[in-house]
Amino acid sequence: MKVGNIPESKVMTRRGLLAGVAGSAPFVSNLETLTHFGRSATKPAEAAALSSLRSYTLRSAPIELAGDWGRMLPRSADLVLERMRHACLDGVRLVSDHQPTKLRVEEHTAGPPSIWLHPDGNSMAWIIVDIGERDWSKLAYQFGHELGHVTANSWQADAKPAPPCQWLEEAMVEAFSLRGLALLAKGWKADPPFAGDNAFGDAIAEYRDNIVNHYRALADSQGLTRDAPAWFADHRSEIEIPGLNPFAQAMSLTILGEYEQAPESVEALGTLNRWPKRTAVPASQYFRRWKESCAELQASPQLPNRLSELLGISAR
What we know:
With 316 residues, the chain is an alpha/beta fold. The protein is built from eleven helices and four strands, in the order H-H-H-E-H-E-E-E-H-H-H-H-H-H-H. Strands 1-2-4-3 form a four-stranded mixed β-sheet. Strand 1, helix 4 and strand 2 form a beta-alpha-beta unit. The radius of gyration is 20 Å and the shape is globular.
């Protein structure tokens, strides 16, 4: 996950490029105006609008496109994003008390996918992607990963990634995206968003399989599949490097298996990062605070319990 700030003048320019085709400018203007009223809204109309905004969840928050989408039709990109969002979130109980009221997905022509941490107090989660022309598999994959960060409460200004536990969040949200891709491929083949495009479901499945096969080879070569506690102890200094490093990639398959065996475990993502210092605490504290957060939000502790046990980490 990359962080950064974008000047408001640049935001307005990008928003203007898509306003004519996406039809989102009036909504964006109203939403951003209302969010500046914040807690001081007193007029009935303002209060009603704010109440409506607060009713949004990550599953229902409007998606706004921005950036350089080239010759891709915004409506087509939006259909893919909506399909992937539902593949990732349908059937998942959203427990977080820090959910955005809007998602902005901005296409860049270079650079890694990321979350922009804008310090303006806006309740929008801002996702950056970098894909080729109509590369819908890549769009879904990148969006799914960053949506995982948003689900894990890593979208507000204070969500800067930090060692030693950022690698674990990266592994969890990567597994979140791979889980979503499998469901997207199945749904696309049965009911494609574009008429007659059923066969592209197989292409999505192949794209996912290539990633999974690469990660499986990593897990085998690193020793994760043979002895997870020894793997963590022996490679800890390399594992705890922030980002989706090769060890986080390998661990993502173990977590994916947990998601598939115990679907309720996915909801624990929404309980992450609700404590001071977020991922910058030692692993034992990270798991303890994560379990406490699960209890506070009445979410399943299946995932933190299983991962702490698997890695041999005492949540003291």
